[in-house]
Amino acid sequence: MLVTFFLNNTEVSYSVNPGEYLADTLRKHGLKSIKVGCNESSCGSCTLLVDNKPMMSCSLLTASVEGKHITTIEGIQEEAAKISRCFSEEGADQCGFCNVGYALVIYSLKREYKNPTDEEIKDYIVGNLCRCSGLHSQMNAIKAYLKEE
Q1: How far is 5 from 55, CA to CA, in rounded Å?
Q2: φ, ψ of residue 139 in degrees (nearest 5)
Q3: Cα–Cα dist 65/6, whole Å
Q4: Residue 29: alpha-carbon gap to chain centroid
Q5: pTM, whole model, 2 decimals?
Q6: CA atoms within 13 A of residue 115's CA, in its CB half-sphere
Q7: What are the tens digits of pLDDT across the range 57-95?
Q8: d(Cα 36, Cα 43) in Å, to the nearest integer?
Q9: Inter-residue contact 133 to 97 (CB < 8 Å)
């Protein structure tokens, strides 16, 4: 089946199997920034934005994104650099496997909330797991990014 959608503001059409997941489709077409850690939507490494909302691509059928706008880390390079700097300054990044998913969720958080509370931040990032560093340094990095213009 042919599925057409907007990938980082560029219209693409891919021939996919009906049961194919978006993470697999994008990786097959060269987007290696999409990480797959669990294949069951519980780690957040495969997070991307679908119509500006964080979604886990390892359990999202490619056919379901027909006509939608998909944003990967490649589509938010300037913001990703800011997020990366904040994480680095706080010592919140370790192995880096979860960074792409976190960056997209944090970018979405900033667009959706003006001044989120700690609880709102925690609720928003709950689906993204990092097994290397503690939440404290990540929270500091997220708050630093949210304060930036």
Answers
A1: 15
A2: -60, -40
A3: 9
A4: 18
A5: 0.86
A6: 0
A7: 989 999 999 999 999 999 999 999 999 999 889 887 776
A8: 9
A9: no
Residues near 81 by Cβ (< 8 Å), separated by ≥ 6? none
pLDDT digits (tens, 9 = 90+) for 94-123: 766 567 888 899 999 999 998 999 999 888
**What's the pLDDT tens digit per position in 16-57?**
999 999 999 999 999 888 877 666 655 677 899 999 999 999
* pLDDT the model gives residue 61: 96
Cα dist. 36→58, 100, 123, 137 in Å?
Answer: 7, 11, 22, 24
Cβ-count burial of 68 within 10 angstroms (0-12 exposed, 13-18 middle, 19+ buried)? middle
Q: How far apart are alpha carbons 48 and 71 in whole angstroms?
A: 6
Question: b/e string for 24-55 if b means 16 or more Cβ within 10 A?
Answer: bbbbeeebebbbebeeeeebbbbbbbbeeebb
d(CA 104, CA 32): 15
In the 3-class helix/strand/coil scheme, how is 22-39 assigned residue by residue? HHHHHHHCCCCCCCCCCC
